[in-house]
Each structure stands twice: as C-alpha cells, then as structure tokens.
Write a structure and sequence with these properties.
Blueprint: H1 2-27, H2 32-37, H3 46-52, H4 60-81, H5 83-107, H6 110-126, H7 129-150, H8 155-177
Length: about 180
C-alpha cells in the first residue's frame, strides 16, 4: 500500500514539474498543443545556449531566474526520458487527441461525423478485453484498499483489495504472454 501511494505521489509531483516546464515554454510563445505534438529532441543543451548569448549586464534576480529555468528544463527532459514520463506524455497526447476529436465532431457534417465516430470506436476496441479487465480490477482493488484505510476495522477490505490487484496482475500477465 505504501509503495503504491508513494508511486502515485511521485507520478503526481513529476507531472506537476512537467506542467510547470510546459507553462514556461508556453510563456515563450508556444501553445501547449504545439508542445505535445512536437516530439523533437532538443540537440543543444541549455548551458551551451547560455554560453553563446552575448554577455549583458544582469541583476542577481535575473541570473537566479535563468538558472531556475535551466534546472526545470533539465528535470523535465530527464523526466521525459523515463518510462513514467513517456507514459504520461502518451496519456497527455491521447487526451489532447480526444479533445480535438470531440471538437471536430461538434463542427462536422453528418458524413464526417460518421467517419469520426468509426475512428473513435476503433480506438476503443484497440484496448483488448484482458487489459480492460485488468484495469477495472486494479481500480476496484485500489478503491477497496483506500476504503480499508478509512475504516477502523477494514482488514476485509485490505484482503479484497489485494485479491483484486492480484487478479489484475494475472490478467496483465496473460495478455503479455499472448
């Protein structure tokens, strides 16, 4: 339970760092959708860019702010290279795609709407039955474990939650073996 909560908290904190880095980039004139769809790897390091800048008279606050931005960018790049960061990026891209699809669906003609609905149905079918079942069991297991924490004598909920998580793990393993 503690490990799960720890991983959830770490993921949350790292996603906040990612959002802050995106906001910093958005302040430079880029929109969030451009940042999501642009997956180019930055070839120049921020430190090298800073060396190439013509030296100007800067205050201590400006220098401190620049260093802070550089640190955030490094953390964001490191996070995006991790597995969790890649998954979060994929999730964000899917979420933006769904939002775009809904907007297009509202403004589409009936024929275009039919095509868009078929595309969305294909995406839903892409998630196989075993993964979907595993996700459902995992969510139920987590809810039961959280409920057990809230109830004074919730040992039965801990047990049921652990069983649900184990069943979810079995379904994932079955899907990976196929």
């Amino acid at each position: 339970m503690k490990k799960t909560l720890f991983l959830v908290c770490i993921t949350f904190l790292l996603s906040i760092t990612l959002v802050q880095a995106q906001n910093d980039n958005a302040a430079e004139g880029k929109s969030v959708s451009e940042l999501i769809t642009n997956t180019e790897v930055v070839k120049e390091k921020p430190i090298e860019i800073q060396k190439n800048v013509v030296s100007e008279v800067k205050t201590a606050k400006q220098i401190k702010a620049e260093k802070k931005i550089i640190r955030r960018q490094k953390r964001a790049e490191k996070f995006l290279q991790s597995k969790i960061g890649q998954r979060l990026l994929k999730y964000t891209i899917k979420k933006a795609e769904k939002k775009r699809l809904k907007k297009e669906l509202k403004n589409a003609t009936p024929e275009q709407a039919k095509i868009l609905r078929e595309q969305s149905e294909q995406r839903v079918k892409a998630l196989s039955g075993n993964y979907r079942t595993a996700a459902i069991f995992a969510i139920i297991g987590l809810v039961l474990i959280i409920l057990a924490n809230l109830i004074k004598d919730g040992n039965i909920f801990y047990t049921l939650g652990a069983i649900c998580l184990l069943i979810a793990l079995i379904f994932v393993i079955i899907e990976l073996i196929k």
